[in-house]
Write a structure and sequence with these properties.
Belongs to the PPR family. P subfamily. With 820 residues, this protein is mainly alpha-helical. The protein is built from 43 helices and ten strands. Among the domains are: 102 residues, Serine Threonine Protein Phosphatase 5, Tetratricopeptide repeat (Alpha Horseshoe); 107 residues, no CATH class; 124 residues, Ribosomal Protein S8, Chain: A, domain 1, CATH 3.30.1370. Helix 11 packs antiparallel against helix 12 and helix 13 packs antiparallel against helix 14. The longest helix has 22 residues.
């Protein structure tokens, strides 16, 4: 056995370990010198290795690195004591000098015997890795790293981090290194650590380490930035779809002055686009342009479709041109996005140009691109180009889909090209596609709108036979067509089918009825109304009133009365306008039988104006009050805020009727009350002593005659009683009433001169005219009859007659309607 004997400075546990290691089986014969030298070298290596390992853990924790190194060397860093190799008997076989320790940073080498050998990087890295893997983290790790027998460098740290698989242990080592005075910021260290954290999906750890990297960068005056690490972090976070964190790191990297590479920009833009935030992607793209970063093919492929889809077509097309100038080959997606977006934006020429250019690059149009182009041209009304693309699509081997058939049919139908639409419609059926209700409805409505009854009915029957339910608009279009063509029976059949389908048909039936009413087809309207009643379909009071008025205009009083009764019984409002319109028909009627019918219709209205009419024609004994009081009471009951126009209309028609019936006194009472209630506020104007005027342009014939007589009577009283004589008096008649009023005044030799629209006379002449007896009779009693006019002429020719006696005679009876 061979034993090792050393100086007392070497602990016995180390010696025992070394002895156990160097024990060999040998004969008692002497050992040759070469073998002894080899054993000496082995013992030195073992001694280096086990000197550190043999120190107890508690002792090492309380000792400084210099004391720790003194276990193998003296304070003067000289040689250790002699190492002697003994045999079993204890005799010395060989002796030699041991290892000398080295101060870190002074001599990065060791002395092996008498040889000076450098410390290998691999040995240093292995030692660091050994310590890190043994202690992992915490104070113990830092203590053992502090007691390393050599001075580590950043190269050792980088290689150690690459070997250590435990990310937490690597982070502990790196944080210890950052505390050392020899630490220099290293991009590769951060890259290795970020890579390990990314493999472990520890994105919180990545964020924390990134913050440390930013702080580390800000503390140093040289502003050394880990460019690769910054970009690597952003790319990792972007690929992991950590949107907020990635964008935050991107902003911090920009604030630190770090240059972001193209791949990082691409990853960020892809992240925002995938998250549906294109405006943020464009913001990143704009910052990329400001930094003069070189766009690569991926950037173009990414940003051009996004710009096109977001409507920024000019920017997208500019990048497309720039991409071609840089000799980059656009992909199919770039062409497809530009073709689609330009077409939808109405820039059809540019869209077609890009489409043709795409084929020049060798790309084959897809079915989606054909659909987009055809849709754009069809919506723009360029149906010829759409059909050419349609044929090109089929020749390219693509089968038009259901939606494309529908779009082609509807676009041609809506543009009035019904023949092409029907041709494509038949091709659609042959291709095995069942047209949708919207397609049927479009064709039906367009044929109905063009007045093609046969085609519309054929499409309707085809639609119902296919089991499809026509829409409400289809039924309305078809019923409107049949109503305009006066096919009442067919329209009734369609309406009943519509009702059977579950639709509410009241409104549609009323619309058909209104078509007949507006078309003045009263017989068809009455027939359709009877059909509605027999089918249990109701209409509204407004349409009933419209049909009633149509019957009145056409003299169908027998049919009008039941309609009015229906209107009254259904709580329909018979207002003053409707009553006045019936009275106007009575004024114009010249048939006694129809007069009786009209009087019956007036009584059917049950309006208060009819009771007023009946009371107006009775005597004062039955009314028990004078006619003027009776008229005033009626007009006091009118709501002038709501019925002022109706009341004015009633006065005009009523005065026509009263004058026609010869009831001049009653007519003057009605006019007097109407003027008192300011129904005609601007009719009479007193302009001091200059001009007095009467405006009758807005009155009926009867109302104008009564107004002239009554107003001249007022002028006469004012002039005679108060002695006021104006310069002139005007009667503004307008071209229509001028002749009637001029004839009436000429019968009593009035001084009024007739001009285009005005009758005027000097005030003095009118004053002299007012003094004549016949004028007095004319103004006080009635419009003179032919007998009165003849008597006046006799008085003029024979002034010896006694007019004062004749003026005492009782007044003439009221003139009849025939004399009027």
């Amino acid at each position: 056995m061979l034993r090792l004997r050393t100086a007392k400075s070497i602990p016995r546990n180390v010696i025992s370990t070394l002895n156990r290691t160097t024990t060999i089986s040998a004969t008692p014969s002497p050992l040759n010198p070469s073998l002894a030298a080899n054993l000496h070298s082995l013992s030195i290596r073992l001694l280096r290795s086990f000197t550190v390992c043999s120190v107890s853990r508690n002792t090492v924790a309380n000792q400084s690195p210099s004391l720790y190194r003194s276990l193998c060397s003296s304070e003067s860093s000289g040689w250790t004591e002699e190492v002697e190799y003994l045999d079993e008997s204890g005799s010395v076989i060989h002796s030699g000098k041991g290892i000398r320790s080295v101060e870190p940073g002074v001599d990065d080498h060791v002395m092996v015997g008498g040889l000076k050998k450098p410390l290998m990087n691999a040995s240093a890295v292995a030692k660091i890795v050994e310590v890190v893997q043994r202690w992992k983290w915490g104070p113990e790790l830092e203590t053992h790293l502090d007691k390393l027998q050599f001075l580590p460098s950043m190269v050792h740290v980088k290689q150690s981090l690459k070997i250590v698989e435990d990310v937490d242990a690597g982070l502990s080592l790196f944080r210890w290194v950052k505390k050392q005075p020899w630490y220099v910021p290293c991009d590769e260290c951060y890259v290795v650590l970020f890579d390990g954290l990314n493999k472990g999906k520890d994105f919180e750890g990545i964020q924390k380490l990134f913050e440390e990297m930013v702080q580390d960068s800000g503390r140093r005056s040289d502003h050394h930035h880990s460019l690769g690490a910054y970009n690597q972090v952003i790319q990792y976070l972007a690929k992991a779809e950590k949107l907020e964190v990635a964008f935050c790191c991107f902003k911090k990297a920009q604030d630190c002055g770090c240059k972001i590479d193209t791949q990082t920009y691409n990853n960020l833009m892809m992240l925002f686009l995938n998250k549906g935030l294109p405006y943020k992607a464009f913001e990143i793209y704009e910052s990329m342009e400001k930094t003069d970063s070189l766009l690569d093919g991926s950037t173009y492929e990414l940003i051009i479709p996004s710009l096109a889809k977001s409507g920024r077509l000019d920017a997208a097309f500019k990048l497309f041109q720039q991409m071609k100038e840089r000799k980059l080959r656009p992909s199919f997606s770039v062409f497809a996005s530009l073709v689609d977006s330009m077409g939808k934006a109405g820039r059809l020429d540019t869209s077609m140009k890009v489409y043709m250019e795409m084929q020049g690059f060798g790309h084959r149009p897809s079915a989606t691109m054909f659909v987009s182009l055809i849709d754009s041209y069809a919506k723009a009304g360029k149906l010829d180009t759409a059909l050419r693309l349609w044929d090109e699509m089929k020749s390219s081997g693509f089968r038009p889909n259901f939606g494309l058939y529908t779009m082609i049919i509807e676009s041609h139908a809506k543009s009035g090209k019904l023949e092409v639409a029907m041709s494509v419609f038949k091709d659609m059926e042959k291709a095995g596609f069942l047209p949708t209700p919207s397609t049927y409805s479009c064709l039906l409505e367009m044929h109905a709108g063009s007045g093609q009854v046969d085609s519309a009915m054929k499409i309707y029957n085809s639609m119902t036979n296919a089991g499809l339910r026509p829409g409400l608009s289809s039924y309305i279009s078809l019923l409107t067509l049949l109503a305009n063509k006066r096919l009442v029976d067919v329209a009734g059949k369609i309406l009943l089918e519509m009702k059977a389908m579950g639709y509410s048909v009241d409104v549609c039936a009323s619309d058909v009825l209104m078509i007949y009413i507006k078309d003045a087809s009263v017989d068809l309207a009455l027939k359709w109304l009877r059909f509605m009643g027999s089918s249990g379909i109701k209409t509204n009071n407004f349409i009933i009133r419209q049909l009633f008025e149509s019957c009145m205009k056409n003299g169908l009083y027998d049919s009008a009365r039941p309609l009015l009764e229906t209107l009254v019984h259904s709580s329909g409002k018979v207002d003053l306008v409707l009553y006045t319109s019936i009275l106007a028909h009575l004024v114009r009627c010249q048939d006694e039988d129809k007069e009786r019918q009209l009087m019956s219709i007036l009584s059917t209205t049950k309006h208060k104006a009819h009771a007023f009419m009946c009371g107006l024609f009775t005597g004062p004994e039955q009314r028990k009050q004078p006619v003027l009081t009776f008229v005033r009471e009626f007009y006091q009951g009118i709501d002038y805020e709501l019925e002022e126009g109706a009341a004015r209309y009633f006065v005009n028609v009523l005065l026509n009727y009263l004058v026609l019936m010869g009831q001049i006194n009653r007519a003057r009472c009605v006019w007097k009350v109407a003027y008192e209630n300011k129904l005609f506020p601007k009719a009479i104007v007193f302009d001091q002593h200059i001009a007095w005027s009467l405006d009758v342009r807005n009155l009926s014939v009867g109302a104008a005659l009564i107004a002239v007589v009554h107003t001249l009577h007022r002028f006469r009283k004012r002039m005679l009683y108060y002695g006021v004589v104006p310069r002139r008096i005007k009667l503004v008649t307008g071209p229509t009433l001028k002749i009637v009023i001029a004839q009436m005044l000429s019968s009593v030799e009035s001084p009024f001169e007739v001009s285009k629209v005005v009758l005027r006379a000097p005030g003095d002449s009118v004053m002299e005219w007012f003094k004549k007896p016949i004028v007095q009779q004319f103004l006080l009693n009635e419009i003179p009859s032919r007998a009165d006019i003849l008597m006046h002429k006799l008085n003029v020719m024979f002034p010896s007659s006694a007019p004062e006696l004749r003026s005492m005679f009782p007044p003439k009876p009221i003139m009849s309607s025939k004399s009027f």
